[in-house]
Amino acid sequence: MQFVSTRGGGEPFSLEQALQRGIAADGGLFVPTEFPCFSPEAFADDDTAPAIAQRMLTPFFAGSSLADDVGAIAEAALSFPLPLIDLDEPAADLSVLELFHGPTAAFKDVGARFLAACLTRLEGHASDARGDLTILVATSGDTGGAVAAAFHRQPGIRIVILFPRGLVSARQEHQLCCWGDNVTSLSVDGPFDVCQALVKAAFADQDLRDRVRLSSANSINIGRLLPQAAYYAASSLEVWRRTGRAANYIVPTGNLGNALACVWARKMGLPIGEVILATNANRTIPDYLASGDWQPRDSVATLASAMDVGNPSNMERLRHQHPEWRQVTEAVTACAVTDEQIREQIRRDAERRHQVWCPHTATALHVYDQLPAETRQAGPWVAVATAHPAKFESIVEPLVGHAVDVPPALAAILNRPAQAVQIEGELQALAAQL
Ligand SMILES: *Cc1c(COP(=O)(O)O)cnc(C)c1O
Fold this sequence. Notes:
Shape: globular
Number of helices: 19
Number of strands: 13
Bound molecules: pyridoxal-5'-phosphate
Largest sheet: 6 strands, mixed
Helix content: 40-55%
Strand content: 15-25%
Structural class: alpha/beta
């Protein structure tokens, strides 16, 4: 299959180009030229998420050098449980899709591992006198850990993480700095914007690029989106087999990568009904759906910090697919949730539902509870749990009044020694580390 830039024009790109470049030269995002379409019955023989992923993603790999590896790549990316937990609510059909059983306890593990499995295989076919591929990742918290875990000890690839010193939580910092080997963690003197600007400056510096092969692994890479469609396929098929009905999803949303994968799964024929985006106080998407005016803005800091995005980049993909505002409003709806509502949801559900949510997941449950009773009863509904609450213990534990158990994978990471190199927020300082 071929891929085009959302900004149009130009030749189509191969899957390899889309994976390796991440972003198109015109600044657009890569989208497939077509989507395959399946009936639920097409997956009758597929019982596991990797098997479902292999069937639905094979068409995207057609004609690429990775075509024979789709099964193995899907196995590597979706190698941990992605369970659908029934909340057993009276008079409603509500379940929670837990995406946090991977190495860094957040859904980003799926995309990061899939991208790593693709890029290491492509590197295996490549050779360059400049040596290893260096992947730069500017992170405000979760992305860097998932990417580091996914690429740790992968041959031929070096990971350099830049994070804002003092502006990530203690456990997040540990996840960014505990790898060693082919992972370098840089604690940058400055906020996230400075980290991101440093990465851009490195890409723009020709001397540096002559010396070092640079790439990026940010969340707009198509290799992170495609595998996410697989867990929506697997969970919707599970609901379909049980009830004969299409599942409606509520997805905690920041940059729209996770929710867009749900929309793509629906487009590919999977039994998915409504898709509701739960945002935090960063209201760019809900305001656009209400007014038709696309007004990106600076992000505001909230408790659900991994969703603090004022200019959600994947909206460009959704609008490319649905050029009219009306069409976008038919594809998704959205609801913003305040910090106070997040706190209240965590506090109340610990008592009422006996469940502990991370602040991101709490936005989805809040949106569910706000739906009119007849809409809830018209389910089935799936609320998406994007991270384990133990990652955000300093917010969650005071609200629920007890300690949250740390899952084994996260505990293993927290037990590793951590170290970072401190650098000034200047290109020279970054270049010296490359
Ligand atoms: C990244 C992240 C989100 C937001 O996902 P997008 O794909 O950016 O919409 C939500 N929750 C958690 C825990 C995350 O790490």
